[in-house]
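Structure tokens please, single chain.
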Amino acid sequence: QSIACALLFGVFLLSLWLFWKGLIAASIVAALGLSQLWRLYSEQLRADFRGRDGFTVYQGMALAGALLSLVFASVFASMNTTLAPSALLGWHAVTQVEVIVLCELLAVLILFYMGRSSVTSSRLELLFNEPAKK
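Here you go.
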């Protein structure tokens, strides 16, 4: 996990640098593509049963995500936009009251939906013993 953390932090820094340079399509490929390629490889390092083929569904999803990054980047590149990144405009966009309330509402909905397991169950039982009489 520490290797994944260090590697993905490096991918984040690379993607952020590409984004601030205005290379949005390359930033998309770096962020999504490289992180998914790492996942594709790191799944091979697991010591558990990998299935008969040795290629898991998770690896298939990671490969699809990496290929999807190329699709997203090509779609973005074909738009012919001349967007310049602006931290100030981004900050103003995410600090609007509507955005903050919507994010909080989304967090509460996710908590209610995912906060309770539908697979496992538990039971809480308390037993009190009376102290022994002398």
